[in-house]
Design brief:
CATH architecture: 3-Layer(aba) Sandwich
InterPro entries: MetalPrtase_cat_dom_sf_prd (IPR023091), YbeY (IPR002036)
Shape: globular
Order of helices and strands: EHEHEEHHH
Cofactor: Zn(2+)
Oligomer: single chain
Helix content: 40-55%
Distance between the termini: 29 Å
Radius of gyration: 15 Å
Function: Single strand-specific metallo-endoribonuclease involved in late-stage 70S ribosome quality control and in maturation of the 3' terminus of the 16S rRNA.
CATH topology: Collagenase (Catalytic Domain)
Keywords: Cytoplasm, Endonuclease, Hydrolase, Metal-binding, Metalloprotease, Nuclease, Protease, Ribosome biogenesis, rRNA processing, Zinc
Family: Belongs to the endoribonuclease YbeY family.
Number of helices: 5
Strand content: 15-25%
């Protein structure tokens, strides 16, 4: 990162299910952002349970179910100068991560880390609204996970065929 790089990534732990190394997650998040030429960011990551993310999903997206992760960009980076910091809030359900980890073939903490990478990629401009875009985003997630020393299980259907 350059001298002017300022990565303020704060984790707000509102759950008791999983334990994380927050300094490692901060470095991971900064690495994903830097790989996409984002050198300044202020991001709050909330770790919550299913009832909390369900309530947020209803309130903000009108989806009446719990989900894995919700990304809230707080500024429109397309309208800001390139040196303007990215501001966002990310909400991750650790309960959902624990539920999905078995199917994915890795730990709940690794599943939650995937949710963080997924959300950061949304902030970097990726989307998953079409099948092609979803495939591209999954490929980029896989590249980022490998770069970070993580490898999804071969049984994880989300990454099969990539």
């Amino acid at each position: 990162m350059s001298e002017n790089a300022v990565m303020d990534i704060e984790f707000i732990d509102q759950q008791q299910l999983l334990t994380f190394d927050f300094s490692h997650l901060q470095q991971l998040a900064a690495s994903v952002l830097a790989a996409h030429q984002i050198t300044q960011a202020e991001i709050h990551v909330l770790l919550v349970d299913n009832p909390t993310i369900h309530a947020m999903n209803v309130a903000h997206l009108e989806h009446d179910f719990p989900t894995d992760v919700i990304t809230f960009p707080l500024n429109d980076t397309d309208q800001q100068p390139p040196d303007y910091p990215l501001e966002a809030e990310i909400v991750i359900s650790t309960e959902m991560a624990a539920e999905m980890a078995g199917e994915a073939g890795w730990s709940a903490e690794e599943e939650a880390t995937l949710y963080l990478v997924h959300s950061l990629l949304h902030l970097c401009g990726f989307d998953d609204l079409t099948e092609d875009a979803q495939r591209e985003m999954r490929q980029r997630e896989l590249e980022m996970l490998h770069h970070l020393g993580m490898k999804p299980s071969e049984t994880d259907t989300r990454f099969q065929g990539l």
